[in-house]
Amino acid sequence: MKRELPGLEFWALIHPHTGDVTETRPAERSFSSDLTALVECEKGPFFVKAMRNRPGGRRNSLAREKLINPAVHPVSPALLWSAEDDDWLALGFEVVHGRRADFTPDSTDLPVVTDALDRIGRLPLPDVAQDWAENRWDRFLSERETELLRGDSLIHADTNPSNFVIGESHVWVVDWAWPTRGAAFISPACLAEQLIASGHTAAGAEAWAAQCEGWADADPAAIDAFAVATWRMNKWRADRSPEESWLGAMVEAARTWAEHRGVAGRAAAWPQ
Question: Which InterPro entries does the entry mention (predicted)?
């Protein structure tokens, strides 16, 4: 469904940063923001993400993206300005040029994708993220199992192909909507799930994940617990949004991974 562009009050809010706007091209993928667009303008161009300034998870995620950006640049495009009033929160990023990554089995992009995750893994945990404990999977595990996901690494868990922008000489990781503090293996594990959904075997996907430094020292029991939680989470989400076919595909990928690790029975036993 195509979203309407914001009204005049929004453009007045960001005008001090953009000057006169000549063209706005909404992004094809803009699931989490009220506006995600390339804005051609007097002082730009800029890649603009904006959210209605209402309390809640979506607004909070954009606020986190603003706070984390100084710590993740240049892995991520730089945040150049922000604007906020009672109605809107808007972020203006530098425009980077590239294409989305290819996660299919024969792709030549995978070495640079794993390298990008390693670059994130080597970043020191910024002070702003100290209290952002990773808890997205907690409700799908026992209290003992959730402890396996704790750690002091900066996590970018949304490792889908669209969030890796591959340019001629650089790779950027975008959409830092919910950075957290957690175990170092989580981002590579999320990559493994995405690779399975893109056609890899579970063993092949894990072989790529194993090339990430964060995977190397992981406790196999922690990866098992994460595979269990991933299957349960995707099933829970798909059951509540049956019209979203991509969620069904992620359920199948997670099930395949759980079977490969020998924990499918345990995952399916969750009473919800």
Answer: Kinase-like_dom_sf (IPR011009)
